[in-house]
Amino acid sequence: MAVVAVQADLIDKLGRERVRVGESARLRCGRDVLALVLPQSSLDVEYAVQVARRRHVALEVRHRLPQPLDEDLTDAIVLDVSALQRPLEIDIGRRLATVGAGMEVQALDRAARQARLCVRGLPLWPDETLGQMLAVGDCGEIGLGEATLLQDIIGARVVTGAGRTLQLGATELFGLTASAARGLPSPLSLLDGHEGRGLVVCELTVRLHRAPWSAWAQGTFPATRPAVLAVLSAARALLATRQIDTLRLQESGGEATLAVRVSSLRDEGDLALLTRETTARLAACGVDLTAFAQEERRVRLGQQAPGWPEPRLDGAVLELQLAWPDIPALLDVADALAARTDVPVQRAWAVGADAVRLRLQAAGPGPHPFQADAGHLLDAGALPIAGGSRWRQAVRERMSPAAKVVLTSLYRAFDPDSLVSPKSGLP
Predict the structure, then answer these.
(1) How many CB atoms are closer than 10 A to CB 54?
(2) Does 392 map to a domain?
(3) Residues of the chain with pLDDT under 50
């Protein structure tokens, strides 16, 4: 009877088109769930939370479906926040965009480019949403040399586990960066990598930037450790002088391939100088680049999706963020772990001015061969992206007692009954 009551409460208020039960929910989620809710606004989310509280059932937040659901969710309401598609609102004067958490990042970028603006720190994957990037702490791969998208999120509308709608962030201070709130308390930074725990993100306010003139080139070189480190060092020098904003490097089968993008906010003619200097710098490392091809005018105006390199992933993946000084130590650990397994592990780099993103991809299905030894990667300076249960125990063991108390207290302030995503647990 409790199951029928929960489903009836949701359907009566939200309608059958936004609430899936039975076989329809199972097909979308890949397993049996109590109910699947496709909210359209923060009011829908708030009502779903209130039903879960009143009926004493859990609420699991998912940013993309179908996706693997390892937990037993037969007694949980699954909330698909990719359905939160608030109409895009762009303030050209303040260079701000307010969107739903379910909007794809590349779609936002294309819309902003029609106003000669753009988003920094874009993901390669065209279907990745703003809410998903924020939830897993994804720093993006395109434009990472300028800054990450997460640094440009200055406001968020959220629904807490207590069923309250809150506006986080000092969005009225439009002239300031997200971290410079002049003493105004805001837990906005807690959303970075929160993985849907404690609260549900419904809307986001993102800072936009002028769209640059850009050009791409590609190259290959032997994937030896000295060569890779030399290219990464050259990339850091190019980033420091703002000659490039993107460099992606992938090691596979003893060969490394890279894609590099130069960009300029001055004028189109400035690209010729930047491409010559970038080509010379990488040639000194043994990389023979192809001729730079400028991004089409239609791309710059947001009339079509950019043709960025877009490799698809097959197999288990661990994604890390690390500081530049930690690269040698992390490579030592990764090489040692790879020597203990027969599964080939490929590495893919995306470099930024302040941090580096590293993807470790193992061939074949099943868990990643480094998963059991994730703590060694953390000790080498890695910060997990999309960590989830694979990393949580290792992270918890390395947290100080004071950090555990503070973080647990903050989450309990948002979600006193551990209602939202309780399967993931507190830090």
Answers:
(1) 12
(2) no
(3) 1, 178, 425-427
